[in-house]
Amino acid sequence: RTRILTVVNQKGGVGKTTSAVNLAAALAQGGARVLVLDLDPQGNASTALGIDHHADVISTYDVLIDGEPLSTAIAISPQNKLLQVVPSTIHLAGADLELAGMERREHRLREALDAHLSSLDEPPHYVFIDCPPSLGLLTINAFTAATEVLLPIQCEYYALEGVSQLLDTISRIQAHLNPKLIVSTVLLTMFDGRTLLSRQVVDEVRAHFPDQTLEAVIPRSVRVSEAPGYGQTVIAYDPNSPGALSYREAAAEIARRGTA
Amino acid sequence: RTRILTVVNQKGGVGKTTSAVNLAAALAQGGARVLVLDLDPQGNASTALGIDHHADVISTYDVLIDGEPLSTAIAISPQNKLLQVVPSTIHLAGADLELAGMERREHRLREALDAHLSSLDEPPHYVFIDCPPSLGLLTINAFTAATEVLLPIQCEYYALEGVSQLLDTISRIQAHLNPKLIVSTVLLTMFDGRTLLSRQVVDEVRAHFPDQTLEAVIPRSVRVSEAPGYGQTVIAYDPNSPGALSYREAAAEIARRGTA
Ligand SMILES: Nc1ncnc2c1ncn2[C@@H]1O[C@H](COP(=O)(O)OP(=O)(O)OP(=O)(O)O)[C@@H](O)[C@H]1O
Ligand SMILES: Nc1ncnc2c1ncn2[C@@H]1O[C@H](COP(=O)(O)OP(=O)(O)OP(=O)(O)O)[C@@H](O)[C@H]1O
Ligand SMILES: [Mg+2]
Ligand SMILES: [Mg+2]
Predict the structure, then answer these.
(1) How deeply is A20 buried, as exposed, middle or buried, from its count of CB atoms within 10 A (0-12, 13-18, 19+)?
(2) How far apart are CA B75 and CA B46, in angstroms?
(3) Distance (Å, rounded) from C-alpha B112 to C-alpha B115?
(4) Kindly report the CA angle at B13 between B246 and B178, in degrees rounded to 5?
(5) pLDDT for res B217
(6) Does residue B260 have a pLDDT over 80?
(7) How far is CA A60 from CA A16, A36, A70, A107, A130, in A?
(8) Above 90 in pLDDT, residue A259?
(9) Which residues on adjacent β-strands are paired with residue B76?
(10) DSSP letters of B38-60?
(11) Vertex A129, ends A123 and A132: CA angle to 5°?
(12) C-alpha A196: how far from chain center
């Protein structure tokens, strides 16, 4: 069964995109078939995976709004042929409002993804859905389509402020839209060992999510933030950097734990 | 005339909240009357200014959705009595969808703010509106109510990806909702002098926005990210730290330049 992880946190800039693309690249490097769905109008995941996402490309917008089959929007990442991507385009910026007036507006991604997966002899082992920093209809679609939630939490003070709101939203999703959804994975990002603040956040997050928080913690590392400038993940850009090593460890842990 | 600056960037985590609260605190320290409107459901600006924002507090939600007069929602920051705040609460998370079905949905903040400012003998010199990381109806309301746009740009690769989308949105606002709106100020944040990436982003942003980009650049500094944990701005928490000094310089430049 395909594991479908939605990478979500309405707090901005916590490492959602960076985690989605680097975990996907690490799992693909290990031989897994991985599909990344870019649901963020910024298209940062598409950029990091080296996929064109100018306005005319078929994207997650066409799948969600026009009912385009997912397979027509899939591109193969130049980094690894096991890594497939459905890019997002600028049109997605208006999707929250457009979806608001549509039939089965929360289910459109799930229906497109289920139709696609059941048509394949060899479905992907993992699907990662990169979400925008909000809890609007794009993210709701991701929650409804997913089997698991992966929650990146930045080692900063504001990081914990929004978590209870996010968990409230998830329990509403579990009650009305997707009872099987579980918060399986919490990943600590941009850890800076020199600061007390980072260590305090790590302790607090491990106390809140003892079973879900991965052992692997992603350090703040400039190589990680340089990689997208070259259309690469840090896994490809600098495989022995601290960021690449910790994303590989995190990917191995996710694979080993299975659906918690 | 009151300067009304909306602090906006749909890219997450670029320093919108940190810039809104520290510029406001620096201007108030210099004797200006400043009002901060927190339009982000996270409520990070309310936290940084030491203002209670649990679910029962009267907030920007009540002003926008129930038509509550702004004055009933104003709280005075414990840091400086010249610094007033309208907090946000968790209810704001649903506001984008609620506003979608309302009359004059883009104008509700402007009407509330205009009514409030014209009722005062001594209106504030500055209003800062802290926006969530999206271009939905909350941010559209901020654009419609504002006289100026302040655009924080993080010194990171993804920072430039979303700027053209943001400028497109602003020109649509200028055409249909607020012809007087100008992009007056661009502020570079989280600059790390040790990395080439930071310097490249600075050069590129200054080339794109030669007149609007402030001389002052905000360095990445852990004291800035520690301050909200104490319910303070860095201006109050550690006045002589690099972050506090550069926010004071940036505030002085904004004051000196006037409405560009
Ligand atoms: N471990 C890290 N070390 C250094 N920089 C990082 C790290 N992880 C992410 N970054 C950088 O921090 C910024 C924010 O990360 P990213 O864009 O992945 O967050 P996000 O949660 O997807 O943001 P948004 O909310 O806008 O979607 C980016 O510029 C990214 O390159
Ligand atoms: N100059 C700085 N040095 C170090 N850390 C900073 C600096 N500016 C902001 N930060 C930290 O970076 C994180 C992101 O900043 P902030 O929350 O202000 O961004 P934002 O754009 O308001 O995010 P959002 O998109 O979620 O609203 C916060 O944890 C903040 O404390
Ligand atoms: Mg992202
Ligand atoms: Mg903010």
Answers:
(1) buried
(2) 10
(3) 5
(4) 85
(5) 98
(6) no
(7) 17, 11, 8, 14, 11
(8) no
(9) B84
(10) E--TT-HHHHHTT----TTS--H
(11) 165
(12) 28
Instruction: Return residues with CB closer than 5 A to ligand 4 (ion).
Output: B 16-17, 40, 44
pLDDT exceeds cutoff 90 at B187:
yes
Segment B138-150, tens digit of pLDDT: 999 999 999 999 9
Q: At residue A260, does pLDDT exceed 60? A: no
Cβ-based interface (< 8 Å): residues of B facing A: 10-14, 17, 41-44, 47, 90, 93, 96-97, 100, 132-137, 154, 156-158, 161-162, 165, 169, 192, 194-195, 197, 222, 225-226, 228-229
- Answer whether B72's CB lies under 8 Å from B116's CB: no
SS3 A129: strand
Q: How many Cβ pairs closer than 8 A exist between chain A and B? A: 107
For residue B114, the surrounding DSSP H or E stretch is helix B108-118
Output the average pLDDT for chain A: 96
Q: Is the distance from CB of B237 to CB of B243 less than 8 angstroms?
A: no
Q: Which residues of A touch B167 (CB under 8 A)?
A: none
Strand partners, A191: A219
Residue A125 CA, distance from chain mean position:
15
